[in-house]
Specification:
This protein has about 90 residues and is an alpha+beta fold. Helices cover about 25% and strands about 25% of the residues. The protein contains two helices and four strands. The chain has a four-stranded antiparallel β-sheet, with helices on one face. The longest helix has 13 residues. The protein is globular and about 30 Å long. The two termini are about 15 Å apart. The relative contact order is 0.26.
């Protein structure tokens, strides 16, 4: 995975739930407030995403990717979130 993303962030999933990290990264990519992003639940079930990313091993990290609101989103169990244009 390269570092050439529209937005990339690192989080500690013990401090920030994965779904919150995704919304923050999407709002940065879209240059809008978090409540300006279409509801993530329209694309991905937030609770299983939180559980999977926060509880999975970080070596090697589990990766979940999906498209939401015109952006490619990648979330990893090691705390990495990346947002790119589709």
């Amino acid at each position: 995975m390269t570092d050439d993303h529209l937005v990339s962030r690192r989080y500690d999933w013990d401090d920030v739930p994965p779904i919150v990290g995704v919304v923050e990264a999407l709002s940065d990519a879209d240059d809008t407030e978090p409540n300006g992003i279409p509801t993530l639940a329209e694309t991905v079930d937030p609770e299983p995403l939180n559980v999977l990313c926060a509880s999975a091993s970080t070596q090697p990290p589990v990766t979940v990717s999906f498209v939401h609101a015109g952006y490619d989103v990648t979330v990893r169990s090691d705390g990495f979130v990346a947002v790119d244009t589709v």
